[in-house]
Amino acid sequence: MEFLRFILYPFSILYGLLTAFRNFLFDLGILPSTSFKLPVISVGNLSVGGTGKSPMVMYLLELLKDDHNISSLSRGYGRSGTGFYLADDNATARTLGDEPLQIHRRFPKLPIAVDANRRRGIRRLMKKFPELGGVILDDAFQHRYVMPGVSILLTSYDKLYINDYVLPTGSLREFKSGAKRADIIIVTKAPRLL
Fold first, then answer.
1. In whole angstroms, what is the distance from residue 152 CA to residue 124 CA?
2. How far apart are CA 84 and CA 122, in angstroms?
3. C-beta separation of 136 from 61 below 8 A
4. Above 80 in pLDDT, residue 106?
5. Chain-centre distance of CA 116, in angstroms?
6. How confident is the model over 148-186, as pLDDT tens digits?
């Protein structure tokens, strides 16, 4: 395993530099990041794979649904399209994606939507629901085209981002220093007793 990591390390450096350059362009304002008057909470991670983003989104929806007219917007991985789709009674994993469908089934009265273009998705939600009180973005830490009011970074207890490497050597989507953009870092999947 260490030999393979050694072989892949130059590719990890290259990939990390490309993502760092992209982030630098956002930091300078060369790539635009849109702010909304509406409160936006971003939930994401630095790594590929499951850190519990969807359960965190569902936790936040449960926490905020009674006092705020809240919604959820996801990219909708695994669905057939990329455009805006608002969950309804006819929603399937093919039209919505597996995880957004799961969220919709748990919160059928809340606006649950998907759109690969998060800016467009937020605008569509705001237009359709003028009384909307906020949007929770699922898996949006690297989606810098939207400036969230609060950014929550998740990392799995058994694979903390601080002990990982950038793709393809490890599972990080960007250098560890990207965590500085987070307002809150939550360690997920921790044992009950530490």
1. 23
2. 10
3. yes
4. yes
5. 12
6. 999 999 999 999 999 999 999 999 999 999 999 999 999
All structural domains of the chain: 2-188 (3.40.50)
- In whole angstroms, give the CA distance from residue 104 to residue 111: 8
Band (pLDDT 50/70/90 cuts) for residue 1 is low
d(CA 186, CA 69): 25
Of 82 and 41, the structure prediction assigns the larger pLDDT to 41
Percent of the chain predicted with pLDDT > 90: 89
Question: Rounded to whole angstroms, how far apart are CA atoms 98 and 75?
Answer: 11
C-alpha–C-alpha distance, residues 179 and 185, integer Å:
8
Which long-range contacts does 125-128 make (Cβ < 8 Å, 24+ apart)?
A: 125/71, 125/73, 125/86, 126/36, 126/38, 128/86
From the list 163, 143, 118, 152, the residue with the least C-alpha distance to 19 is 143
Q: Is 175 left (phi over 0), alpha (psi -120 to 50) or beta?
A: beta
Contacts of 118 (CB under 8 A, 6+ apart): 73, 75, 137, 140, 143, 145, 146
Query: 85-86 and 112-114: which strand pairing?
Result: antiparallel
**pLDDT beyond 70 at 88:** yes
Q: Which two tokens stand for residue 10?
A: 């130059």
